[in-house]
Amino acid sequence: MLNLTPVRPVLAIALLAALSAAASLSPNPLGAAAEAATPGKATIKIANFDFGPATITVPAGTSVTWTNNDDDAHSVVADNKAFRSAPLDTGESYSFTFATPGTYAYHCGLHPQMHGKVVVTR
Ligand SMILES: [Cu+2]
User: Fold this and answer.
1) Is the CB of residue 98 less than 8 Å from the CB of residue 60?
2) How many domains is the chain partitioned into structurally?
3) Looking at residue 35, what is its pLDDT?
4) Could you tell me if 89 and 31 lie in one domain?
5) What is the CATH number of the domain that holds 57?
6) Structural domain for 10, as ranges
7) Sign of the CA dihedral 47, 50, 55, 59?
8) Environment class of 85 (CB within 10 Å of its CB; exposed 0-12, middle 13-18, buried 19+)
9) CA of 99 to the centre of ligand 1 (A)
10) Among 101, 105, 103, 66, which residue's Cα sits nearest to residue 87?
11) How far, in Å, is the centroid of ligand 1 from the Cα of 86?
12) Ligand 1 geometric centre to CA of 97 (Å)
């Protein structure tokens, strides 16, 4: 018992030092990750009769915006009819907010061979 008393403060100081070192290191990686993607928003470009990226994974609540960069009109139609855009002319956009987790396969209503997928996580 008597021998432990001087040891404890040293351990406590070592623990505090380790904790504060961890705390001062963590904000940088977290901040970098938060800046990499705008929270709550994602974009998909339509170009050369392709959705790019063809598959994206986003957290629930994300608003996904498709923009048509082709000279031809395209649309965005969920295979399960969860969403459907009007035909998008060059430069036009369509947005849909994914509130419910799940996998949403979609296609172009004008060119059924064009496919994409939005994976919504919790
Ligand atoms: Cu199309």
Assistant:
1) yes
2) 2
3) 43
4) no
5) 2.60.40.420
6) 4-35
7) positive
8) buried
9) 25
10) 66
11) 11
12) 21
